[in-house]
Amino acid sequence: MTLQMFAMWVFVGLLAGWLAGFVMRGGGYGLVGDIALGLVGSLLGSVIFWALGVATGAGLFMAVLVAFIGAVLVIGTQRMIWANA
Question: Residue 25 and residue 4: Cα distance in Å, rounded?
Answer without folding.
Answer: 32
